Amino acid sequence: MSAALQVTAFGLALLSTLFLLLATCTDCWMVNADDSLEVSHKCRGLWRECVTNMQDGVRTCDQYDSILADHPVKIVVTRTLMIMADLLSGLALAALVLGLDCITFLKEDPCVKLKMCYGAGVILGAGSILGLIGSVWYAVDVYVERAMLVSHNIFLGVHYDFGWSCWLGMAGSTGCFVASVLLTCCLY
């Protein structure tokens, strides 16, 4: 039972870590939500903004000026939290690989392997919380920005909605949290 639970938690942690990495690297955290007579599809991400022409499929991306430039708080906070979540989940994944019962590393000391799995679960939990805070922070800020424009009757021509990268970050963080619960609560 313990080995099956470990392998399940490892598979979930691996998939969720990949989701977190993809969410951090991709550029569709916000997408334009106007479908009326749109000839282009606009995406804003943490690192750049892209526009795709719907007629010929040509995609053009503009990198943000610099990492150290003055950016909106939502971009800076989300970048920081997502990078920390990526690093912590990657570290937890490495510790979890070494702590699995099916790996021959430290096979003669099962107590140490169990502690490695538990430690990986704790680290994975910390990374999942950071990733979830970053993803939800960004989504709430997009919603508040849109609500402020609507409440003041301001229409700029394009309004943005949550993109698939934001949802991917939330899914990856939730998966890491579930894997963390499996490793810390259910393994004993």
Report what the structure shows.
The chain has helices spanning 2-25, 73-99, 110-151, 164-186, and strands spanning 30-32, 40-44, 48-53, 59-63, 160-162. The model has no long low-confidence stretch (mean pLDDT 85). It is elongated and about 65 Å long. The chain has a 5-stranded antiparallel β-sheet with strand order 4-3-2-1-5. α1 packs antiparallel against α2 (73-99), α1 (2-25) packs antiparallel against α4 and α2 packs antiparallel against α3 (110-151). It has a single domain (3-35, 73-186), classed as Up-down Bundle (Butyryl-CoA Dehydrogenase, subunit A, domain 3). By secondary structure, it is an alpha+beta fold. A hairpin with a 3-residue loop joins β2 and β3 (48-53).
Topology:
Elements: H1 2-25, E1 30-32, E2 40-44, E3 48-53, E4 59-63, H2 73-99, H3 110-151, E5 160-162, H4 164-186
Antiparallel strand pairs: 1-2, 1-5, 2-3, 3-4
Helix pairs in contact: 1-2, 1-4, 2-3, 3-4
Quickly describe the structure.
The chain is an alpha+beta fold.
Overall number of strands:
5
At the first level of CATH, the class is Mainly Alpha
CATH topology: Butyryl-CoA Dehydrogenase, subunit A, domain 3
Order of helices and strands: HEEEEHHEH
Helical segment count: 4
- Report, as a whole number of angstroms, the end-to-end distance: 11 Å
Biggest pleated sheet? 5 strands, antiparallel
